[in-house]
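haha ok so turns out i had the wrong file open the whole time. this is the CORRECT one, sorry everyone. sequence first:
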Amino acid sequence: MAYSLLGLGLLGLIVSTPFLLSAVAPASTDWGKLSDISQTYGAVSVVLSALALAGVALSLLYQVRQARTNNEQAIRDSHLQLATLALSDPNLLLAWSPPVAPVTFKRHQQHLITSLALGELLQRFRIGHLSIEKLAVKLDGHFRGEIAREQWEREGSGWRRTMEAGDRRDRVFVRLVDESYRTAVAAGPASAPLEFQDRPARS
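then structure:
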C-alpha cells in the first residue's frame, strides 16, 4: 500500500509541475530559457516516472503474494480441522483418509500425523520461511523415524502425483523429500518409536 501511494504521489507531482510553474512564474519570465531547463526536467521526470511505476508494481506484487499466502493458510487451517475430527473417530478416519494397505488404527493415525508434518513443511517452504538448506535439515530428522519412513513408502506415490501437478516449488519439495527418504534408507535401519516414560495410563 505504501509503495502505491508513493508511486501515485510521484506521478501526480510530475504531471502537475508544469502547470504550477506556469501559475507562479512572473510575466517577464524568459520562457526560452525555461524551455531549455524543461528538457532537463523531462529527462528527470522519465526517471521519476519509472521509479513510481516500479513502486506500484512492487506493491501489487506484494499484495498478490500476501493474498496467496493468506488463502493457503486458510486452506491449511481447514485441513487441520478435518484431520483433528478424523483422528478422534475410526469411522470418520476411514471416510476421510482410508488406508492404502492393511494397517491398525493407531498406526494409521501416526501415518496421518507424519503426513500433516510434511504438509506443514511444504507450507513453510512455499511461502519462503524455509530455504532448501533448512528444509533438507528438517527432512533428515523427519526420516530418522520408523513411522515417517513407513508413511512415505505407503503414500509417497500420491504425494508425487499431487506435487508434480503443482508449481515449481511443489516439484522441488517432493524431489527433496524423495532424496531425503532414499538417503535415510541407505544409511541404515530407522529408529524404532519409543514410548514416553511418563505416559499416563488409560482408564
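The chain has a mean pLDDT of 79.
again sry for the mixup
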